[in-house]
Predict the structure.
Amino acid sequence: MLARASDSEEAWDAAAPIGPQLLRSLRGRIVRTELSPGARLSEQDVAAIYRLSRQPVREAFIRLAEEGLVEIRPQRGTFVRKISEDEVMDARFVREAIEADIVRAAARQADPALVRELRHLVERQAATADGDAFAFMRLDEAFHRLIADAAGRRRAWTILQTIKAQMDRVRYLTAAEFPKDLLITQHLAIVAAVETGDADSAEAAMRQHLRKILQDLPAIVAAHPLFFEPGASAAAVEAD
């Protein structure tokens, strides 16, 4: 049964509009696989659990459907969608294109303060407990968001949040096999290029970092077939 999450990510701001906060909460629970594909979401139940009227719940369901995370079936209800392989690959393509330009802009600045903050985030990632992939991924989000902020592209990062939701579902689904050491090494390569102001190397490091899912996705689908819709994009790895 659906219950209201209680971790720190679910802290609500009483002074802020409730609709966006509800949307963020439900999206986060789907992305973190707390709500599995096929789970039925009832307007009435969600409204009762979050102590809201049904109107913001209905609006959140519509937004989630637009993002491809739920399916609204007339007369039947709203259900969490399976992960679309095609949408994962499309999201990866768009994310790489945007973040490649973002990191180039950040590298051109070669800001020592930015480099210090990035290294601090990587140190915190390295210090996360083995197996605590959720903590690592929160820091990963902070790492990429910080680069976008430094490049003056905060709005672009905000737009990416909905685009990459399917990618993030895959990452949380495979939390137990999270390649912590490899991702730290890739992050350090990005930081080193930003520190030296080498935009070309920064872009190359970012692209390599974001392309790992190309190799991983077929095996992930095979290991978790009930979580995925069949798709054509993952049938062949994209060319470099």
